[in-house]
Write a structure and sequence with these properties.
Chain A: Keywords: Endoplasmic reticulum, Glycoprotein, Membrane, Signal, Transmembrane, Transmembrane helix. The complex is a heterodimer. Chain A is mainly β. Helix content of chain A is 10%, strand content 43%. The chains are: A mainly beta, B alpha+beta. Strand 1 of chain A pairs parallel with strand 13 of chain B, so a sheet runs across the interface.
């Protein structure tokens, strides 16, 4: 029996919103989001009061990923974040300064200087100049004025240093000073009277320091002197500090042996040497800590660290005689530690944190103002650097809170020695991720199998034994029973436990993430993405990234394989993070990509070397299928392994290189891509058979000179082109993404009305486009095309006829205009493939991820006419060129998920549900149900109501039963 | 791939006048709850055309500042996580003059909408964007309420017939005896209930027999009615 058509159409028109939307009561319960910033850098992390009159301060940082953010120091939740784009310059060169009293933080990265409102995170002004910003300083003036403070930015342009003074209210250029002499511009420092520019000038192998004094009003050079430091400074890292309190700004560096600190008070030509004392062995690191506010006392602290201990000396600068004298010292303590400076009015406080305690001292005297035992979780590792804020409760009562970056890449807030919150900032900057299955209750299945295979008596005895053994779980089961009964009546949260076991729904899985800092994380997707373990695979220098070429979780062995570009690989246990095997970079040939292959000896992770050459493989491990690789010129090659003695040798079966075009992307179908139905049933009960060739790849190529995009669908066995199309007027600098799954593929680009297209061409629109193409075996319904009823086909020799053309699919394609760019595409995966697929697109401009249902982008939507009743029944509705991104389709709802690089999906045990995990700067995870949750009772199912209804019926029956009985008896016996 | 000369000229002339465009959010109440200062800091605007894109973050004075915009025909979009804005077409002429119109996505680019006034403020030009509405991300779950049950037409019909069944005898009892007689007499003759002898054919409907395909014979039917 057919349902009434009108009803069906009504249902379908309601369907999109009902299916896709995030339920208000599920937002933040089903999904999880790590709002990350990146690792805070020591010189760009500070406490700052956004309102002058208000005592409350926020914690500001510019991270190694170029994210500026303000964090609430009480809760650890970001107040606002802004991603700085850097262009060519390294993201780690960013600078951030707070403008004291103005409520503005100024950032600089690449060629851009930006001022941000400290409370709202909105832009105040932005200025761009040629060159790269090397240093940024706020121009402190002696006179208190209502005007916003100006900003000094030191640019390196070519070989010259250019100092620019920008106005504080608009970022306009006030004056600029160009240092004609070639040198490396290094830093700026200001005093109420002068501006100093410090630059490095090569002298032999080392550098001399040149200090140029400028007039702050005009920007004219006043003085210039050179400090001979060529025997000490060989690298910018050798300079300890420039600046400090602007009352007496200093320039300090150490000699190579780290035996003394050399200090120059800027403006004076003399250099004073301060001796360093060893702390249990040779010093490894010397840092100098000084206040930055102009009204602060001219005190500084030299912090000396060796491998096993650390100590500190506090020095005072006499403003009159310019003499530097040692005031006191902080004794040697074993282990690592941090020093942080905080200033309050004129007072300067140093907070010293060692492994066991945190102490607070004033710069003026050695008396300890506060001492707290340090109680932090050991998993954070050692303390690296800190930013502190001191609050004076009363004259002798102080409180201190410090945001500490630790060696395990956590950012921990320590309030008076106790841990207040932790941000897992190391999780930011993820580059690859993969799902890992949890071990399930497979032992029971194994036992039952073993029992079935032994003789009946033995297995019977064994079963008895097993049952008796299981009795020990009975008390626990009985105590759980009331809870279970209650939970079936009153809806409870889906089980979120720390235990790493499979659940009945298959929602509990692990996600393994590798970050660009060489660290691996294991997250429990079943428990809202909680970090289960983290392990450092490689130590990556600050200015480079770990170039990971692939990650694969071997669920049979429970191992994670991660392969890096320099040939290194690491094997980690998926559940614990224990590193099983690790090779150092360079010990194996470089890798350009890696692929999971199926060989006679099982699945394994094959690295592909330079020029797409995977190399020789022992025959037992050679891939069964054709391997598609990309050569160094971008050409796509199909490799087939031929047995040659004990080894198998890759031989190119085909090569594909469209002339005049550059291949930018090749996508294959997802590894898990089941198809439940081989055809699409039309309204008139005929079937269009899907073209389901598993050996297809989608190649994206752009023209090298012009602005055109070509898409090629290739047969990966024969290399034949099955379908190709070309678009002109495509912006090849904007993201072009594609996906191939089931019997359809989709890609998106920015299209424009290209001038020069043929006169009769359709007038084009300007905007982002999403093209969807669906492939069928034949354009006719109930027809299987050239392949007919063959049960086997070959890509190489279809139709048993030598040299025959391959069976070309019938393609139905449609272009939709979309309001935003798509930077990444992914598709939902379910266990059986019965559920319709949902296209998951990352929208970089609104920092969100959208889930588009296939029936919205179905290319078979009728164009230019209303759908016929048969089409309506199929769920097709009239084509409109523009698809608006309904906010209800946004999976991330109101969350601001920044910097998403990839989205991965995994099927749950429930057919309706697909798990989604997005990574990049932020981490986001959720579950999607593209065809609604048809196999699980949602929160909308009110168990209590059901029970109440049953009870009400029961009462009704109890009341009515006697009445009915009486009436029946009366009916029989009473005559009138 | 062909390229128009205009386009090549466009790229090859870096000396062309660059304009500064200031895009403002409407400050007046476009609709209730509209407060431009409450928009998140992640709001951005973009000017896009082939091969060049300008992006500007929202400033604290509720404007987007595009500096050094080279001549061309741009699509102006405001991307916000809480509100939807109308897209605009912004044309920057070779002389640096800016013109703007509304545009319709999914239509050809030459199909321009309403002209948007561009104010010339010395070295910069200013235009306003229109906010279309607020985004709502969530759907509320339709919970169970007894009132919604009453709205169900089936329940209403059932309730009405219940009243009829229980209320009618009571009414009849209270009726004047003469009137009742008259009423009963009329009921007998009325086509609806009249001819009760010619029983409703469905009354004796044998579903099992019908499903089995052996329809009851006429004689059987009469037999049954006789028995009754």
């Amino acid at each position: 029996m057919r349902p009434p058509k009108s009803l069906l159409c009504l249902a379908l028109s309601i369907l999109p919103t009902a299916v896709l939307a995030v339920f208000a009561d599920e937002a933040g319960v089903v999904d999880y989001h790590y709002e990350l910033l990146g690792l805070p850098k020591p010189d760009t992390t500070f406490f700052y009061r956004p309102r002058k009159e208000d005592k409350a301060s926020l914690l500001y940082t510019l991270s190694d990923l170029g994210v500026v953010g303000a964090v609430n120091p009480g809760t650890g939740v970001p107040v606002w974040r802004q991603v700085l784009s850097s262009g060519s310059d390294s993201l780690s060169n960013g600078l951030l300064r707070g403008v004291d009293g103005d409520g503005v933080v100024v950032s600089a990265l690449g060629k851009t200087v930006s001022a941000w409102d400290a409370i709202s995170g909105r832009l105040k002004w932005q200025s761009k100049f040629s060159g790269q910003v090397r240093d940024l300083e706020v121009m402190e003036s002696a006179i208190v004025s209502a005007e916003a403070k100006d900003v000094l930015a030191l640019y390196e342009d070519g070989n010259k240093g250019i100092l620019r003074r920008l106005t504080g209210n608009g970022g306009d250029l006030k004056w600029e000073f160009t240092d004609e002499a070639s040198g490396v511009p290094f830093q700026i420092s200001t005093s109420p009277k002068d501006v100093f520019v410090i630059s490095l000038h090569a002298a032999g192998a080392g550098y001399n320091l040149k200090v140029t004094t400028l007039d702050p009003v005009t920007g004219k050079k006043v003085d210039e002197y050179t400090l001979s430091s060529k025997s000490d400074i060989f690298d910018i890292e050798d300079i300890l500090l420039v600046g400090a309190s602007s009352a007496a700004p200093i320039l300090a560096w150490t000699d190579q042996a780290k035996q003394e600190v050399k200090v120059n008070i800027l403006g004076k030509k003399a250099v004073q040497n301060l001796a360093l004392r060893e702390a249990d062995g040779k010093l490894t690191k010397v840092t100098l800590h000084a206040p930055h506010l102009p009204q602060s006392q001219p005190h500084f602290l030299v912090f000396s660290q060796s491998a096993s201990a650390n100590r500190a000396d506090v020095y005072h600068v006499d403003l009159k005689s310019n003499a530097i004298t040692k005031a006191y010292e902080l004794p040697k303590v074993g282990g690592t530690g941090t020093i942080s400076t905080s200033s309050q009015d004129g007072n300067v406080f140093f907070t010293r944190m060692t492994q066991d305690e945190a102490i607070l001292v004033s710069s003026a005297s050695h008396g300890v103002l506060g001492r707290w035992p340090l109680k932090i979780d050991e998993s954070h590792g050692s303390l690296l650097h800190a930013a502190s804020e001191v609050v004076t409760r009363s004259t002798n009562l102080f409180a201190v809170r410090s945001a500490v970056a630790t060696s395990n890449e956590d950012w921990v807030m320590i309030r008076n020695g106790a841990e207040s919150w932790t941000r897992v900032e190391g999780l930011s900057g993820a580059i690859v991720a993969d799902w890992a299955e949890l071990p399930g209750e497979e032992q029971l299945a194994a036992t039952l199998k073993a029992e079935a295979q032994t003789n009946p008596l033995a297995s019977y005895l064994h079963r008895w034994q097993r049952h008796i053994q299981e009795l020990e779980y009975l008390p626990a089961y009985l105590t759980e029973l009331p809870k279970r009964v209650m939970s079936s009546i009153i809806p409870v949260e889906s089980v979120t436990s720390d235990e790493l076991v499979r659940d009945n729904f298959g929602f509990h899985k692990m996600v393994i993430v590798a970050t660009q800092r060489g660290r691996l994380y294991g997250l429990n997707a079943g428990n809202r993405g909680k970090v289960v373990w983290s392990a450092k695979a490689y130590d990556i220098p600050d200015d480079s990234k770990w170039d990971v070429k692939g990650i694969w979780v071997d669920n049979v062995k429970g191992l994670v394989n991660v392969r890096g570009a320099s040939g290194e690989y690491v094997l980690v246990k998926a559940l614990t993070g224990q590193i099983i095997e690790k090779t150092s970079p360079g010990s194996w040939p470089p890798v350009t990509s890696s692929v999971v292959i199926d060989s006679a000896s099982g699945k394994w992770f094959l690295p592909i070397g330079v020029d797409g050459n995977p190399g020789d493989i022992p025959s037992a491990w050679a891939p069964k299928d054709v391997l598609v690789v990309q050569g160094s010129n971008g050409e796509v090659r199909g490799l087939k392994y031929m047995e040659d003695g004990a080894n198998s040798v890759p031989t190119a079966a085909w090569t594909f290189q469209p002339t005049g075009e550059k291949i930018i992307n090749v996508v294959a179908k997802p590894a898990h891509d089941p198809v439940a139905s081989i055809g699409r049933v039309l309204g008139d009960r005929t079937v269009l058979y899907k073209y389901l060739n598993p050996n297809t790849i989608l190649v994206t190529a752009i023209s090298e000179t012009g602005s055109s995009l070509s898409m090629y669908l290739l047969d990966s066995v024969s290399g034949d082109i099955l379908y190709s199309t070309s678009h002109s007027g495509v912006d090849t600098k904007q993201p072009i993404t594609s996906i191939l799954t089931e019997n359809w593929f989709a890609y998106s680009m920015f299209g424009d009305s290209a001038p020069g297209t043929a006169e009769d061409a359709l007038p084009l629109s300007k905007g982002y486009q999403l093209v969807v193409t669906e492939l069928f075996e034949s354009e006719l319904a109930n027809d299987r095309g050239p392949l007919g009823s063959l049960s086997n086909t070959s890509s190489l020799e279809p139709l048993d006829i030598p040299n025959a053309e391959p069976a070309i699919p019938h393609a139905v394609s449609q272009t939709f205009l979309i309001p935003e760019a798509i930077s990444h595409m992914s598709v939902s995966e379910t266990k059986q493939g019965i559920t319709t697929r949902q296209l998951l697109c990352t929208l970089p401009t609104t920092n969100s991820i959208i889930g588009i249902l296939y029936h919205i982008i179905n290319p078979r939507r009728p164009v230019g006419r209303d759908p016929t009743p048969a089409e309506m029944e199929e769920g097709l509705f009239r084509y409109t060129p523009f698809i608006d991104f309904d906010p209800k389709m946004i999976l991330t709802h109101k969350l601001n998920v920044i910097g998403i690089k990839g989205v991965i999906t995994s099927p749950a045990l429930l057919e309706s549900t697909s798990l989604v995990f997005a990574y990049g700067i932020d981490i986001f995870g959720t579950r999607v149900v593209p065809s609604m949750a048809f196999d699980i009772l949602g929160k909308g199912f009110n168990r209590l109501n059901l029970v109440a209804t049953v009870l009400a019926l029961q009462v009704g029956v109890m009341v009515l039963a006697p009445m009915v009985r009486r009436k029946q008896i009366n009916g029989r016996w009473m005559t009138s | 791939m062909q390229f128009s000369t205009i386009f090549v000229v466009l790229i090859a002339t870096p000396l062309a006048v660059c304009s500064r465009l200031l895009v403002s959010l409407p400050s007046t109440a476009a609709f209730p709850n509209w407060n431009p200062s409450a928009l998140t800091a992640s709001t951005t605007a973009s000017l896009t055309t082939i091969s060049s894109t300008y992006t500007a973050p929202l400033r604290s004075d509720n404007t987007f500042d595009f500096r050094d915009v080279s001549p061309g025909s741009y699509l102006l979009d405001v991307h916000c996580s809480s509100h939807v804005f109308a897209p605009l077409r912004v044309d920057v002429s070779e002389a640096g003059q800016i013109e703007s119109w509304g545009t319709f996505r999914g239509n050809e680019w030459d199909n321009k909408g309403e002209v948007v006034t561009v104010k010339n403020l010395g070295d910069l030009q200013n235009l306003d964007v229109k906010v279309l509405g607020e985004k709502s991300f969530y759907v509320e779950r339709s919970g169970f309420s007894p009132l919604s049950l009453l709205k169900n037409p089936m329940i209403l019909i059932a309730g009405f017939s219940m009243i009829l069944v229980f209320g009618m005898p009571y009414l009849m009892d209270n009726m004047d005896p003469e009137m009742r007689e008259e009423f009963e007499a009329r009921q007998k003759t009325s086509p609806l209930t009249g001819g009760q002898a010619a029983a409703n054919p469905l009354q004796n409907f044998d579903a099992a027999a019908w499903l089995a395909g052996s329809g009851p014979k006429k004689s059987e039917l009469t037999e049954k009615s006789n028995v009754k």
